[in-house]
């Protein structure tokens, strides 16, 4: 099996397929993603989320902000299971979604844990990390604000954020408050979308 050109082992494929089955089951009672995107679960959500691991395929410690239905946090945790190293801390304050995330991690033997807390309180609970991810949470300025406790003063901590076609405006607005290095990774799944890799964060105001 391949996802965006990435060869996926049989074990990882089985984990992803089990996750998809769980997701479809839970989505009948919990609003995990927009209902209009459920039919495109593999392309719109699983394949899109897998790009995070393709960009950073190392066994590092992640913090996934506003994990919701598990994108990209659970998908990254599933890929890390094959490496038998690395970890994803999934931050989700909604207790029903947090319950789904715990079930998904447990049943797929993925490398992650769930923190049912507000993002603002998560750093004190989790501590330092190597990478941060978020998808469909808020604008870039807001994401950087949430990520600041982990990234400020840590050159090696990077943020990986999925963004749509309006990303240039979001970058310009974020640069009004923050200074940072930026790499734009073109999405292999969604046209005009990117994954923004942010590092060397400094506060301007």
What string, H for helix and E for strand, traces the elements in order? EEHHEHEHEHEHEHEE
Low confidence ranges:
none
Shape: globular
Report the radius of gyration as a whole number of Å: 16 Å
> Average pLDDT value?
92
Total beta strands: 9
Q: How many strands, which pairing sense, and closed or not: the largest β-sheet?
A: 7 strands, mixed
The N- to C-terminal Cα distance equals: 47 Å
Brief description of this entry?
With 205 residues, this protein is an alpha/beta fold.
Question: Can you give a write-up of this model?
Answer:
The chain has helices spanning 10-26, 41-55, 73-83, 95-108, 119-126, 140-151, 167-174; strands at 2-3, 6-7, 61-65, 87-91, 112-115, 131-134, 158-163, 178-186, 194-203. The protein is of the alpha/beta class. The protein has a seven-stranded mixed beta sheet with strand order 5-4-3-6-7-9-8, with helices on both faces. The protein has a two-stranded antiparallel sheet with strand order 1-2. Helix 1 (10-26) runs antiparallel to helix 3 and helix 6 (140-151) crosses helix 7.
């Amino acid at each position: 099996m391949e996802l965006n050109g990435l060869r996926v082992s049989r074990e990882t494929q089985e984990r992803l397929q089990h996750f998809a089955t769980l997701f479809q089951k839970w989505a009948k009672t919990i609003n995990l993603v927009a209902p209009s995107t459920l039919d495109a679960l593999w392309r719109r959500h699983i394949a899109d989320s897998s790009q995070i691991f393709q960009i950073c395929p190392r066994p590092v410690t992640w913090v996934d902000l506003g994990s919701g239905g598990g994108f990209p946090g659970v998908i990254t945790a599933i890929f890390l299971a094959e490496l038998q190293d690395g970890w994803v801390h999934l931050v989700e304050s909604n207790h029903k979604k947090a319950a789904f995330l715990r079930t998904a991690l447990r049943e797929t033997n993925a490398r992650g844990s769930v923190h049912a807390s507000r993002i603002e309180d998560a750093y004190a609970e989790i501590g330092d990390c190597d990478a941060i991810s978020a998808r469909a949470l808020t604008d870039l300025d807001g994401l950087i604000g949430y990520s600041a406790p982990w990234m400020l003063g840590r050159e090696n901590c990077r943020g990986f954020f999925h963004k749509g076609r309006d990303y240039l405006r979001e970058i310009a607005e974020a640069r009004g408050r923050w200074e940072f290095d930026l790499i734009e990774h073109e999405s292999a799944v969604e046209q005009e979308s990117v994954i923004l890799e942010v590092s060397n964060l400094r506060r301007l105001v």
